[in-house]
Write a structure and sequence with these properties.
With about 70 residues, this protein is of the alpha+beta class. It contains 1 helix and 3 strands; from the N terminus they run E-E-E-H. The protein has a domain of about 45 residues.
């Protein structure tokens, strides 16, 4: 399974969330750290869904970039 993540820079750290998994979030001091933590958070989130008998949400979000003239 492959889920899109969004990483945002805050004042003193980075945060990440998964649009297709509401409530699945992580924070870290660096981009690398928050990527590691969001991987762990996704695994934990999906494990909880399995244990509760809830189907895994499909990965439907897409990430695209657009160029804007300045």
């Amino acid at each position: 399974m492959r889920y899109a993540i969004v990483i945002e820079q805050a004042t003193n750290n980075y945060s990440a969330y998964v649009p297709d998994l509401p409530g699945c979030i992580a924070t870290g001091g660096t981009v690398q750290e928050v990527e590691e933590k969001i991987r762990e958070a996704i695994a934990f989130h999906l494990e909880g869904l399995r244990e509760d008998g809830v189907p895994m949400p499909p990965a439907v979000s897409q990430v695209e970039y657009v160029d804007i003239a300045a």
